Amino acid sequence: MGHAAMLVIEDIMVRFARMQGKKTLWVPGTDHAAIARKSKVEKEISKKEGKNRHDLARGIFAPRE
Predict the structure, then answer these.
(1) What is the pLDDT of residues 13-32, one digit of tens each?
(2) Angle formed at CA 39 by CA 28 and CA 34, multiple of 5 degrees
(3) Element (H or E) spanning 19, and its range?
(4) Is residue 52 within 8 Å of 42, Cβ to Cβ?
(5) d(CA 31, CA 8)
(6) Average per-residue pLDDT in the chain?
(7) Claim: this prediction has a pTM higher than 0.85
(8) Which of 21, 23, 62 is nearest to 41 (CA)?
């Protein structure tokens, strides 16, 4: 119920903005598990390189082009 309620609220907000003439783009369900993924990556790096998250540069988790 939690995810469904959140998506309904987001949908209402986007529709309201669209009715006001604003350009909108809403992509529901994007990256809802970022915290879990970040934790997993930190553990893997810690295991392989012996570093913790404070040792890493900020941009290491940024997507590469």
Answers:
(1) 999 999 999 999 988 776 66
(2) 10
(3) helix 2-19
(4) yes
(5) 17
(6) 80
(7) no
(8) 62
